[in-house]
Amino acid sequence: MPLTANDPTRTSWLDIPTHTDFPMQNIPFGVFLTRDDIITIGTRIGDYAIDLGALHQLGYFEGIQLTDDIFLQDSLNDFISDGKKTWRLVRNRISDIFLKDNSKLRDNEEHRKQVLFTLDEIEMQLPVDIGDYTDFYASKEHATNVGSLFRDPENALLPNWLRIPIGYHGRSSSIIPSGTPIRRPIGQTKPGDDGTPGFGPSKLLDFELEMAFITTDTNDLGKRVSVKEAEDYIFGLVLFNDWSARDIQAWEYVPLGPFLGKSFASTISPWIVTLDALESFRTEGPAQEPTPLPYLQQSKKNNFDIHLEAAIQPENGEETVVANSNFKYMYWSMAQQLAHHTVNGCNVRSGDMMGSGTISGPTKDSYGSMLELTWRGQNPLKLNDGSERKFIEDGDTVIMRAHCTRNGLRIGFGECSGKILPAIPF
Amino acid sequence: MPLTANDPTRTSWLDIPTHTDFPMQNIPFGVFLTRDDIITIGTRIGDYAIDLGALHQLGYFEGIQLTDDIFLQDSLNDFISDGKKTWRLVRNRISDIFLKDNSKLRDNEEHRKQVLFTLDEIEMQLPVDIGDYTDFYASKEHATNVGSLFRDPENALLPNWLRIPIGYHGRSSSIIPSGTPIRRPIGQTKPGDDGTPGFGPSKLLDFELEMAFITTDTNDLGKRVSVKEAEDYIFGLVLFNDWSARDIQAWEYVPLGPFLGKSFASTISPWIVTLDALESFRTEGPAQEPTPLPYLQQSKKNNFDIHLEAAIQPENGEETVVANSNFKYMYWSMAQQLAHHTVNGCNVRSGDMMGSGTISGPTKDSYGSMLELTWRGQNPLKLNDGSERKFIEDGDTVIMRAHCTRNGLRIGFGECSGKILPAIPF
């Protein structure tokens, strides 16, 4: 199945801003509420949201095997279950519909009215019903930094880290779409001198700059997928802010891992950018030494060159970019993660989400969390408005962005943002 | 709302075996496939499965506010969302329908044919669509034993354990109903002398004797529930076998907790016994010293006296009961667990499941896992057929049972069983 939609020479009859994250070659998938308060599956080109439910009802997907209501749903799960071939057919067809010389929709005002929305007319929703969410810990720099800060700088990287794509199960219920405000969490923290644990609003509220991939139905219970097959089961990626309360986390996480320090909220960008759209941004990952066990070995470029940034915007203030990182720093690729996740027979379903873990690069300005950027508050960051930050304060909005560029083509993810509201008093 | 259905003097026109787990006073909820291959929500009295979808269509729930299709679903989630008052009305009504002197269904053969099934005519399914599954670690004896075996006998209980109901997120997708066979998982284990991790079928496959509770919609994101309110949001309990591959777990679990050592399968008993049905089996939990923080303090009996047992049945052999424990040993009550889970604002939804963690008692025969019963294989168990077990072998079926008794009344959970099949070769 050719990736026609990726052709960089394709232009549209739609008016598309230059430098948009959403050119004709992106065609991501999402779920939104329309101006008529109807929920639908859609895509985005430039600054238009496009109602795929309406397009389908009007016959624009003729010839592709799709159930009548496949886009009239509040999640992409069923469409994702249709599999890679269908995703490609639909994405190519969308590209065709908006191609400069295709007059069918272009010259039908009645249809255009039903199909096209400006961004202020819609409200983005969570794109998938996330059954299980797993978070990996796949950046070597991040694992090393955290190991130094939480445990022992001399043995920062634990012995299993270079052998296993370390991951853990996260909380699905509290995953929210970009723009949803977040209450500062309350919880227990390490005891003071009298032995009684601290209790109250987190004082060390942090973001984690991550990406996450969304899977289709991958394997039945007891079966597994190989690294080679794994990408066939990955629908696409979103930006992901794995909000973390470091003081709650530090007290609770031994021996069973992070729990309430993470589960109060996790924010994703609402448009799923398909793996297909990212095809031309493949790159080598970091060298893997020691050589992974055979079931984790890979023979092609399974990393992706995606620039990532995180910014802090104080209440009523201008934003300051505080981190510049890249998805290519991931030591363990998505394909390795998915193969590892299923090696024990664990079944993976449509709509499951797997986070990368914080993506930190080699330089101090490429660290993906305040914990690392300020070295646990020792080196506060200066914001453009003159204020300083050790961690995230009430009223701050954290905004993440991601995009790839090559030969003038830019494929982006839009924003993943969330504002911190004060804790609800007890 | 009176718990009429709990009245121990109530008897039925149905023929109910003595010593059944499912007397008139139980009335659990489950989902099954009927002889006509229709999926429905049902209950069980004695050895009869009762189709609540059919009962509702025939008008037996008149006067109770229920949507027409509330029982014609493949999960209890929507019914559970209806809330405690509705659960009680329905359970009381079911009790009325089968009450000795109530002739309405008793004398209507046509209706009885549509409503009543023998157990060999049905196939039990997973009772809920489990959104998130959390596993706690709430037995002090178990945490102490595991701490001794995996870490340091001198400091077996970590400093946070007496302060926090320690828990972690588990994998929902691989939760299966009793009777589903399980493939021995494959995975990485600790490196040998050459530094290369081991890889292959788990050699230390274990069970964990647990119970789990199912919640209704508890709180919106950012809100919390108190210990006092918590039980209003608990629908009921099931038996739970949290299968564990100790060798995979030991190598992977630092620092983010158990992952593939658990996610290959977890088995639950198919009938959810309501918290209401267990009301008369309340008991004090263990004394909590030091006193928990205020948000975890409780003023009533929040533990339940439920006898638990685990048995091993070798292929073609007779079973041997290897563990006798009790749900009352839980140090942290379900109410404390749910209050803790939401204290940070994490939202809990209908159909979420929370496991107790392995329930071990004070004596060596009350330990809830092979790891503890054989002290990591040092003291193999002798089975009735003369064979020995350090851990679980291929062909073994692990069967768990649970029941409460008081004044001749027995409320039970049926069985939670699973057979281990050999690993699928690579």
Automatic annotation (TrEMBL), chains A, B:
E.C. number(s) listed in UniProt: 3.7.1.2
InterPro entries, A to Z: Fumarylacetoacetase, Fumarylacetoacetase-like_C, Fumarylacetoacetase_C_sf, Fumarylacetoacetase_N, Fumarylacetoacetase_N_sf
Record bears the keyword tRNA-binding: no
Ligand binding (substrate): Y137, R151, Q249, Y253, T358
Top-rank lineage group of the source organism: Bacteria
GO molecular function list: fumarylacetoacetase activity; metal ion binding
Cofactor(s) the protein requires to work: Mg(2+); Ca(2+)
KW Protein biosynthesis (keyword) present: no
Residues involved in Mg(2+) binding: D242, K262, S266
Residue ranges occupied by any Fumarylacetoacetase N-terminal domain in the UniProt entry: 25-127
Gene3D superfamilies xrefs: Fumarylacetoacetase, N-terminal domain, Fumarylacetoacetase-like, C-terminal domain
Key words of the record: Calcium, Hydrolase, Magnesium, Metal-binding, Phenylalanine catabolism, Tyrosine catabolism
Residue positions binding Ca(2+): D135, E208, E210, D242
Family the entry assigns: Belongs to the FAH family.
Name of the molecule in the record: fumarylacetoacetase
Organism annotation: Cochleicola gelatinilyticus
